[in-house]
């Protein structure tokens, strides 16, 4: 269900956000914080492109449905027949769009602050966006736990392996592992250049 680029994107984003959050207040770790922020921005650009041209369940057109569909899905979770989706559910889709948007705002305001382009208001925007991002990450994690319990499937494992218990016809044909390896190599190469 989940191709390798989506999974590598996801776990790199987890690593980068955790690292950037932990180094946010430290002048000593500023280069690491900035590097992780730039990496997150590049990952968002990749995900937007992959969301347009990627595999079936990675494409935004296959899962972004809007607030009404998200509300209908959430209501179904407490009923006898919860909606099940092979890819992202409508509520998760809104969280993904929100996460991508907040990462873009956080990275852009962080870059502007780091480059001394806008003054204190940009620093405030950066902090507000990062806090909003943390809040949305917590909501996302809660959704993963609820979805895993309600649907009796381990969503964390599926984001590691790419597999979910669905009919073969709902799966994807190709895992795109070489693209994922290229993405990982590009990130590691960028980090190496940054720290030289």
Would you mind describing this structure in some detail?
This protein is mostly helical. Helix 1 (4-22) packs antiparallel against helix 2 (30-53) and helix 4 crosses helix 5. The protein starts with a helix and ends with a helix. It has helices at 4-22, 30-53, 60-63, 67-76, 90-114, 120-151, 155-161, 177-194.
Features:
mainly alpha; about 70% helix; about 0% strand; about 200 residues; globular
Quick structural overview:
By secondary structure, this protein is mainly α. It has helices at 4-22, 30-53, 60-63, 67-76, 90-114, 120-151, 155-161, 177-194. It is globular, with a radius of gyration of 18 Å.
In angstroms, what is the radius of gyration? 18 Å
Q: Beta-strand percentage?
A: under 5%
The global form is: globular
Count of distinct strands: 0
Question: Describe the biggest sheet?
Answer: none
Structural class: mainly alpha
Mean pLDDT: 95
Helix percentage: over 70%
Are there runs of 5+ residues with pLDDT below 50, and where?
none
**Gap from first CA to last CA:** 38 Å
Order of helices and strands: HHHHHHHH
Number of helices: 8
């Amino acid at each position: 269900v989940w191709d390798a680029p989506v999974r590598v994107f996801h776990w790199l984003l987890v690593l980068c956000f955790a690292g950037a959050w932990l180094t946010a207040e430290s002048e000593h770790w500023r280069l690491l914080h900035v590097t992780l922020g730039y990496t997150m921005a590049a990952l968002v650009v990749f995900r937007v492109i992959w969301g347009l041209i990627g595999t079936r369940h990675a494409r935004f057109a296959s899962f972004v449905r809007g607030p009404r569909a998200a509300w209908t899905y959430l209501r179904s979770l407490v009923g006898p027949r919860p909606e099940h989706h092979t890819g992202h559910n409508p509520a998760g889709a809104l969280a993904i769009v929100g996460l991508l948007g907040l990462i873009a705002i956080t990275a852009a305001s962080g870059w502007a602050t780091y480059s001394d382009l806008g003054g204190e208001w940009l620093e405030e925007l950066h902090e507000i966006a990062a806090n909003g991002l943390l809040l949305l990450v917590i909501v996302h994690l809660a959704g993963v736990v609820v979805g895993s319990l309600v649907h009796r499937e381990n969503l964390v494992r599926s984001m590691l392996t790419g597999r979910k218990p669905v009919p073969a016809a709902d799966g994807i044909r190709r895992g795109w592992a070489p693209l994922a390896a290229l993405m990982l190599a590009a990130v590691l190469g960028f980090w190496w250049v940054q720290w030289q």
